[in-house]
Fold Class I SAM-dependent methyltransferase.
Amino acid sequence: MAECRICAGEVDEFFDFGRQPVSDSFVTPETAGSEFFFRLAAGICTSCTMVQLIEEVPREQMFHEDYPYRSATSAVMHDHFEAFARRLLETELAGDDPFIVEIGSNDGTMLKTFRKEGTRHLGVDPSGQVADFARAEGVRVLTAFFEESTAREIAAEDGPADVIFSANTTSHIPYMDSIFRGVDALLAPDGVLVLEDRYLGSIMAANAFDQIYDEHFYLFSVSSVGAMARTFGFELVDAEPLPVHGGSMRYTIARPGVRTPKAAVAELLERERRQGLASPETYRRFTEGVERSCTELVRLLEKLRAEGRTVVGYGATAKSATVINYCGIGPDLVPFICDSTPAKQGRLTPGMHIPVQPPEEFSKPYPDYALLFAWNHAQEIMAKEQGFREAGGRWILYVPEVHIL
Ligand code: SAM
């Protein structure tokens, strides 16, 4: 059995997707085949309940100069971060000369509200191009991996942070021991570490198997984040369900005894117990669900091809790498995928090498069906692409099961 990266307990593997490419390695026709491959398998720690990958991808293979993901491409995420930034300004950051650090600040979508309000802030992100987008917004960014040494440098230069915030990033970082030593060095005595991430409970409830990919090293729950905080000398004091990304959770962590834990923590732990989030039966059902979804999706795509229907992919998301490569979907079934991220356009998806085109190609002419890989932004995309439905187009989704809308 593998050893838990959080508590050194035993990790019980529940699914093996086999050899998979790094999910954001969009290649050119010339570099196709140069993708880094690894064994994508997930398990649950029998001690602390943390769901995690069995094999770790070297961080430089994922986060580098050309890392393509940009938070600002979703208007919903933009508004979500702005609303939370405003809430922090009225609460945790309401004191004298407050200071906020963001781990994984990406293109500065969250921090630009603090820049506008003149609040001291610092983003930390190792991916050069996205950090430059943040700088262009006037956001202060350090291009580096956050870890213990980075945190000590920031503490020495800027002083303690009242809030350390991180969204959709700490789950990407296997070395949480170093992260928490860094938080300990940087966080003010009564400060808070706020983490937001995809929620294991939502993933299991929706059989959202494509949320398992290289970057998502951990899938957090209230139970496992509480145990992680305790392991590294902190305490989980609040948890707040969020609707974004198909179901997320915001966790507030403080030094032990500094804050009274909110009732939500115990309530959500009880809900997780009832859902069976630590039970092997849940993972057995999940495994069956993955196989069923893949079989049905490929069968549907083959049937549509046989009938002469046109199908285009929508959203060359990182998580689409899992469904595309595990189900074996190539350009013969989905000739191209539309995506609004310029860095992905004109490139080929990792592994199966489906071409990525700008969204303008979607309507030239509209296909009969669009396979929605960005299902976590379904509402936003369907509202934007009303013309597709009006032209008779139908959406194909595979979460929570294969269905046509
Ligand atoms: N926080 C943004 C959001 O929620 O939209 C960006 C999330 S993006 C999926 C993950 C980001 O984490 C990337 O910009 C990546 O470069 C960054 N990242 C990965 N490892 C990191 C580390 N050790 N320290 C800081 N940032 C890191």
The chain has 13 helices and 18 strands. The first strand starts at residue 2 and ends at 3. The pocket of S-adenosylmethionine is lined by residues 63, 67, 69, 71, 77, 103-104, 106, 124-127, 130, 145-146, 167-169, 172-173 (CB under 6 Å).
